[in-house]
What does this fold into?
Amino acid sequence: MPLDLASQQRSDVGSILARHQTIDDANSLASIDRPPSEAEELPPVKIYRPLSIHVLALLMPASIFGVLARLGLQALTTYKGESIFPLAYVQATGCFIMGVGLRMKVPFGNFYGPLYTALTTGFCGSLTTFSGWQLDVFNSWINSGQFSRGGLRDFMDGFTKTWVTLVLSLASLKLGIYICGVAQPYFPAPRPPSKNVRYTLTVLAILTYAATLPAYFFLPRNFRHQATAALLFSFPGTLTRYLLSINLNPRLKTLPLGTFMANSIGTALLGFFHVLQGFSSAVSPNTCSLLQGLGDGYCGCLTTISTFAAEIGTLEGWKAVSYTIISWITGQLLLLVIMGSSFWGGHVKEQMTCSFQTS
It folds into this structure.
């Protein structure tokens, strides 16, 4: 049964999901990306504004580590004869950690609120990717890998990636919430960090992201398309999604508009970058690396499955279903218009033609 309004305002999403309850107002989900606030009954001294420098700074390294985790998991699980598509591991891992973060929102608030946003919005949002999921499904429809299979099997491959991702993400999210709820009483609450420690964390976080620029230029060039270009664009993608979330999510009662816009824009951009990497005309290796970095870094961090799963897992009945269907159809239509028209017009190859520097 839905919670009454007063209870919704006092309850974080993790607690709502832990009690197997739902809400019927999408703008009540706007708190998912925000640091802990009065709604969690915290004292004013422990409340941080959404655009506080401490909150924004910790999103920087969190985005970097989220991208590294995603790229690492994809590299580890991509091989010939794989039984499960690589993004399944990525989405499941990110949603599990997201569940832990949601369940720990109040303890995070009592300890150091910006860490909650860093873990959920920063790390989990950058680890999981809605745009990558949509591109993976679309590539199955068109059989971009040119596998020897019929059209019906192309459909089944895309359909499988659709429902497995949704079910696995929701199950992992709730598993994280459950395990955290069971384990939490056995761990004592740590003392909040001192003012000096908090400011030191903020400075180190900013310096960590600043290091991505020299890393791009001074590390070996073959690292650019593999990681360093993506790290350079990671925080801008997360910041865009965060700003869309805190400004647009409270606007509609039917669906979280900010998350929807972030996922839609990121999917469209990823499709556009993918098209640019398929032009038959020569594209320089540096441009190819930047396009790959924009796809893996900016689009990967701009779009999220972890927040999306938390929203559809909390919304009531038909609103959850309609939000899921609208988001998925929008993503596929955007890729159909951007990528499909380019491929079938004969101007762009379905396979990437970009060449990267290997030394």
User: Anything to note?
Assistant: The CA atoms of residues 108 and 115 lie 7 Å apart.
